[in-house]
Amino acid sequence: MIRKLIEADRQITMDFVGQKPAENVFIIGDIEGHGFHSNIQTLWGDFNEKGDLRGVLLKYDQNFIVYAPAAFDAEGFANIINKDLSFSYLSGIEEMVNQLAPYIKTQPKKPRVLYYAKCETVEHLPAIPADINLEKAQADDARAIIAQMKAIPEFSEGNYSVENKRESLEKGLARAYLIKNNGVIVSSASSTAENSQSAMIVGVGTLPLYQKKGLATYCMSKLCRELLEENKMLCLFYDNPAAGAIYKRIGFVDIGKWCMWTY
After folding, report:
1. Contact, 122 vs 250, CB < 8 A?
2. What is the pLDDT of residue 263?
3. Residue 237: C-alpha distances to residues 4, 198, 259 (Å)
4. Which of 31, 111, 217, 220 is the most exposed place for a label (fewest CB within 10 A)?
5. Residues 102, 127: one domain?
6. Based on the domain organization, do 16 and 137 belong to the same domain?
7. pTM of the shown model
8. pLDDT-based confidence at 241, cuts 50/70/90?
């Protein structure tokens, strides 16, 4: 049985998605940030015949995210998506999205699939040399961080918002560590979707002239250590095997693939 989830369902929902905090970084963050009675998001739960929650579908703005680790009513969730005129994106662990796909009436224009990895230990994080000066980003650094990202070829076409970056830094939904040269950010690593259990690592990059020096790794090491010491499980996406190899050296392990389908 599928029904909308309400505030009274908070505990069972959080217990359900909290079993996999890395896989559910967005769902956990959205529930904590917006709750069950928000104009921007809606949640549905799929319950088995015993009344146990077995699947969650979250709509945030135009994006749907599905989570169901075992058998669930994929057709029922798909019917909800099909009736939504604003539906533009579908995300989730590949195996779960693939169960929905046959029932979605439209085909994705951009069915992007990324590697998904998590980190739970500081054991492999590298030490930071004494001559490396790391700064923790402030809200006023938002514009400079976005400018740095746009100056890195592999990130240059990303969809960035200075306002969203500033707001997330101000509200503690994100943080970043930076390395500057003559006042200009040359390397950085950021978090996003921070919640009480997990956080997503994003924007790990260095300006081309400063690459091959380990600067982004140092930024990431500082950021990850701080988050892990707060008992937050870390996760990230990657599609470049070379980047994946670096992440694995510092303690990340693959947990599957993540679909980001645009319709």
Report:
1. no
2. 95
3. 29, 14, 10
4. 111
5. no
6. no
7. 0.90
8. confident
